[in-house]
Amino acid sequence: MTFITQTSMTIILRVPTLNDSQPDCTRLFSLWQQLQNLESQEVIVDFSDCRFLRQNAVAFLGGLARLIQSRNGKVNFVWNTLQDDIRANLTQNGFIDIFDGTQRKWLGNSVPYREYRYEDMDAIASYLENCWLGRGWVQIDSASSDEIVQNALEVYSNAFEHSASQIGIFTCGQRYPNLGKLHLTVIDFGVGIPPNVRQFLNQPQKLAADALKWAFKLGNTTRANKISGGTGLNTLKQFVKQKSGTIEIYSHDGYALITSGQEIYQRSPAFFQGTLINITVKCDSPAYNSSESTLFY
Amino acid sequence: MRYAIREMIGENCMTQQSGQQIYEMIYPRLQAGQSVELDFAGTKRFLSVFFNFAIGQLLRDIDPETLDRLLAVSNLSPVGQQAYDRVMENAKRYYSLDDERQRAFDAIILEQATLL
Predict the structure, then answer these.
(1) I want to staple A193 with a disulfide (CB 3.0 to 4.6 A). Which of A138, A178, A236, A251 is the partner?
(2) Which CATH number covers residue A165?
(3) Are β-strands A110-116 and A169-176 bridged in parallel, bridged antiparallel, or unpaired?
(4) Domain limit, last residue, from A68, A101, A134
(5) Is residue B113 within 8 angstroms of chain A, CB to CB?
(6) CB-based contact A260:A241 (threshold 8 Å)
(7) Average pLDDT over chain B, rounded to an integer
(8) Rounded to a whole number, what is the distance in Å from the CA of A176 to chain B's nearest CA?
(9) Per-residue pLDDT for B99 more than 90?
(10) How high is the ipTM of this complex?
(11) Are A226 and B78 in contact (CB < 8 Å)?
């Protein structure tokens, strides 16, 4: 799949339609791969071929733009190539405002796009509480909200501690009222989970899928200085399994899918150096109680 | 000695830094055999990294029975208590291994990792 047209000074990046299935993530990573060797060039982002953008694509495109800028490149989003409904979504979630500054966001059904350059867990907690869960579209008591937010926060905490991303973390969510789901994507452009595990275990040949499986096991941590760890990801896994949610992870050449009924660790169909995590939450329950298993798919 | 966590680090207990801050304050007292109470009244969010740095690593130098005797934790919300219990259970296992067993444990981890 080729999504770029290159001249000596500029590259035109044609964004395809991007959902959040595995082939869509493969296309996202293909965009990243094709822009790997750029230095100080202008990238024109054209949406003419795009009919749909899910929250994972929004977060990824934002991160990709910051990655290009961090390499002294220039990113020019051609907003007038956007379909009206995608433009509305990118306006609602603040993406256009962040990169353009001329169109103020309005919330609608969207969960805002956010970039966190540094570990500001208070701000992330507020984002999850007020913009992801706390929009009144999930009937949920305070204790249950705390439990969900706390588990989601483990993903961000883990990324800041282990990813070594030079450009921070990118996140976006979306509510799908007809499906009764809330989605959340967290992306870093750091070193990836498998290399961290391989280095810690001194097993350079370890398969990425096995490294991901190791990382989710209770008590396993790559944290240095003999400080205990290995509870965050495992807690998230247990929580999602208990509540019938879904976690999907792409990291390096590894892929993991965790649901209430299964854990799959395998080779990813496409390489991405950083880590992309999708979390899916059911939100059509009239009332959620933390003691019940009704909130997550 | 009672420490009001909210007054020291705010309502969110979520980072390595804040955990380390608590650890460095209470460790000398506990090492000296003095009682410490951590009062979490008014706190809201808790991540495992905080508890690992604040309290979990105390078990590196202090045995679990002594820590249970000297350290009291109060006013944790149910969600916080859940995170605390999970971290402490894991930390007790992690630090309970003496050097020889630690080496054996590490070898098992390596072996498991190889078999995966």
Answers:
(1) A251
(2) 3.30.565.10
(3) antiparallel
(4) A101
(5) yes
(6) yes
(7) 89
(8) 27
(9) no
(10) 0.84
(11) no
